[in-house]
Design goal:
Layout (H helix, E strand, L loop, with lengths): L11 H21 L2 H11 L3 H28 L2 H19 L5 H21 L1 H8 L4 H30 L1 H23 L14 H4 L13 H4 L3 H17 L5 H7 L4 H26 L3 H20 L5 H30 L4 H29 L2 H24 L1 H4 L2
Length: about 400
């Protein structure tokens, strides 16, 4: 059944707005704003930054473990209530973090946040956009992903100001209340699971009904894909991209290590989030036309950004510019990995194939987010940034080779 008023705004765009709320507020706080808490919380608890940062590793581990079950739950039960419920749980956990007095309590909070992130990040907009749209899927995924950059760009300075004026505890509480009292009710009210619930067909279904490719029947079956080396190449690509992206958590501390203020460190983090925002929008547009160009812009642009931040002692604006370019690589974690997977393997078993790539993303974050903190304690910020550059160059090679061989990977 289709809508009797074709000129009316399709409800799918309301769903997109809900996905943007999840990415901008929930994910923006959980990931994009995490770095501004590292130094003040570590100093308050009297522990090294690396030990405190392990809570992010626990977050990623929990997400990795939950993803297989979460994928089944979101297909079997209401995505609307699963996502709203996890948003509420995240809000409560953030508020509770404002009352934590021991490191182990943050580790427990990280595990709970990881459960919520499995749904709110990895399973939310990829599932819902594919349900509600048949055209411009890549662009809309980019729009939803970009919202995390908008959220980080806005919320990082706010969080930094709250920390400076009232302390890190109040910053956690304010962020938790924002999620719990504003974001969660909006998701519960407006989110819907399927177009049929509103008497609609997916947006663009009419224009693609005669095309098997657009309808999602082209491409390689999962059973054949997992037997090809390119599958494991993209799996490694996903792992490295997420591992590299967690360097974002250390940008505020790096800026402060150069004798800049916590507010300037927060602004550098916001510059990275501005790069994420712009990068995700542009990468979605680029990938609709040429996935190879998307790979090159993502990886080489990010490597250039990290190199600029290494030279940050020459000026704050160099750091801001480098952070902005690094944000493009950060953007590639969700946009480029998804579009590279779709371009190489097609749409036939995309959801199942990408769920495995998502596990590699979560595993990369689990290992790297804590490992970087330990490495920087033993070496330097410059060393971990050079490691990030090396990872991006490896991803360049993997992406180019995967796309060069895609004809042999597609049926």
């Amino acid at each position: 059944m289709t809508d009797s008023k074709p000129t009316r705004l399709h409800y799918g765009f309301i769903v997109v707005a809900c996905c943007c709320l999840m990415m901008g507020i929930n994910i923006g706080i959980a990931f994009s704003c995490a770095g501004i808490f590292y130094k003040p919380v570590s100093a308050s608890l009297g522990v090294p930054v690396g030990e405190f940062g392990l809570y992010m590793s626990i977050l990623y581990i929990a997400s990795t473990l939950v993803l297989p079950l979460g994928g089944k739950l979101i297909e079997r039960y209401s995505a609307r209530w699963l996502l709203s419920g996890n948003s509420a749980l995240m809000g409560l956990t953030l508020c509770a973090m404002g009352f934590c007095n021991a490191l182990w309590q943050f580790y427990v909070a990280g595990a709970v946040l990881g459960i919520t992130v499995a749904f709110l990040l990895y399973l939310s907009f990829p599932t819902l956009i594919n349900r509600w749209f048949r055209i411009k899927v890549g662009l809309l995924m980019g729009v939803c992903s970009a919202a995390s950059g908008v959220g980080g760009m806005i919320l990082n300075p706010i969080g930094g100001a709250i920390i400076s004026a009232y302390g890190w505890r109040w910053a956690y509480i304010v962020f938790g209340l924002l999620v719990l009292l504003i974001n969660t009710p909006l998701l519960a009210i407006f989110l819907r699971d399927w177009p049929a619930a509103k008497g609609l067909s997916p947006f663009g279904a009419e224009s693609t009904s005669s095309s098997s490719k657009a309808a999602g029947t082209d491409g390689e079956p999962f059973s054949a894909a997992v037997k090809r080396p390119v599958f494991y190449g993209i799996l490694f690509f996903s792992f490295l991209m997420m591992a590299m992206s967690t360097l974002n958590l250390f940008i505020p501390n790096y800026v402060q290590s150069l004798d800049f203020t916590i507010e300037q460190g927060a602004l550098a983090a916001s510059a990275a989030m501005a790069g994420v925002m712009v990068g995700k929008l542009v990468l979605g547009h680029i990938n609709d036309r040429n996935c190879l160009a998307g790979v090159l812009v993502t990886t080489l642009g990010g490597a250039a950004g990290l190199l600029m931040m290494i030279e940050g002692a020459f000026g704050l604006w160099i750091i801001f510019g480098g952070a902005f370019l690094f944000g493009w690589a950060y953007a590639g974690v969700t946009v480029q990995t998804a579009m590279l997977t779709r371009t190489v393997f097609g749409s036939r078993d995309y959801a199942r194939i990408y769920s495995i790539m998502s596990m590699a993303l979560a595993a990369g974050g689990a290992i790297a987010s804590g490992a970087w903190g330990l490495i920087v304690d033993a070496t330097s910020f410059h060393f971990i940034f050079f490691c990030g550059i090396a990872m991006l160059l490896i991803c360049t090679v993997i992406g180019v080779r995967a796309l060069a061989g895609r004809n042999s990977a597609r049926t």
